[in-house]
UniProtKB/TrEMBL annotation:
The chain crosses the membrane at residues 231-250. Pfam families: NCD3G (PF07562). This is GPCR family 3 nine cysteines domain-containing protein. Residues 166-217 form the GPCR family 3 nine cysteines domain. The keyword Zinc does not apply. The keyword Transmembrane helix applies. InterPro entries: GPCR_3_9-Cys_dom, GPCR_3_9-Cys_sf, mGluR, Peripla_BP_I. One of its GO terms (molecular function) is G protein-coupled receptor activity. Keywords: Glycoprotein, Membrane, Transmembrane, Transmembrane helix.
């Protein structure tokens, strides 16, 4: 998500979904030490599986959550083992072990054996982190500056914009008086400006409201005012028009 003017290398905020069950698997591999390789993944189903749900009827939504969790666990396990194996002195991977490990992942993704990698912890709903890309010279870092769990918590002091200036929204310029915002693709930070009717005022950023007969918008289109000179002029024109038509009919 990047709706900001500025340097894209520094002024970037990213929403990242959180999967708390991954922490357990990370700890599992850390406890095993540096000996972990691709061939160790075959040990995981027996040591880390959970059979607490087998034999129970689960709702489709719950089953879908467990399938997603199982898939994420499988991919994470494979990626972690791959990283450990690539750090070996020989820097060579055992292709046979890699194939076996990949087979386990495919089995989990595309078969009914997805429960093998299902841990007891479930996915936490509506949990996101707000990550800010920060730069200190040539060193770049990702800093967690907020979380979303049904509501936002943002550490505004942790957000450090380049040049110490908060960037403006990407295409959300301030609309002129008498104009309202029209959102682009339902993105709240991006909009175009549309003019209200000549006899309307701006109620809020997105709404135009009609003035009553005889009332007209003020200069900044924020309220309706009775303008006697304009009303008198309009009435005079109406009377002249009626007299002209009546005279034409008499003649």
């Amino acid at each position: 998500m990047n709706c900001l003017h500025g340097n894209p290398a520094h002024d970037t905020l990213v929403l990242v979904p959180q999967f708390p069950f991954m922490e357990d698997f990370r700890n599992y591999f850390d406890d095993k030490g540096d000996i972990v390789g691709l061939n160790n993944i075959v040990e995981v189903p027996g040591g880390q599986s959970s059979c607490s749900n087998i034999g129970k009827v689960a709702s489709p939504s719950k089953r879908r959550q467990e399938e997603i969790q199982a898939s994420m666990n499988s991919v994470y396990l494979l990626a972690h083992a791959y990283e450990k194996a690539s750090q070996a002195p020989a820097k060579q991977l055992d292709r046979a072990a890699f194939s076996r490990s990949l087979g386990h992942v495919i089995d989990v993704l595309y078969s009914q054996n997805w429960k093998l990698f299902s841990g007891q912890r479930r996915m936490k709903e509506n949990m996101f982190s707000l990550i800010h890309l920060q730069s200190n010279g040539s060193v770049k870092s990702l800093v967690n500056v907020g979380t979303w769990d049904s509501s936002w918590y943002i550490n505004h002091l942790g957000i450090r914009w380049s040049n110490q200036t908060t960037p403006k929204s990407f295409c959300g310029v301030q609309c002129s008086p008498g104009h309202i915002r029209v959102l682009k693709d339902d993105c709240k930070c991006c909009w175009s400006c549309s003019a209200c009717h000549y006899n309307q005022i701006v109620k809020d950023d997105f709404t135009c409201v009609d003035c009553l007969r005889g009332y007209w918008p003020n200069e900044d289109f924020t309220k309706c005012e009775f303008q006697w000179r304009r009303t008198l002029f309009d009435c005079t024109l109406a009377v002249v028009a009626v007299v002209f038509v009546f005279s034409f009919m008499v003649l």
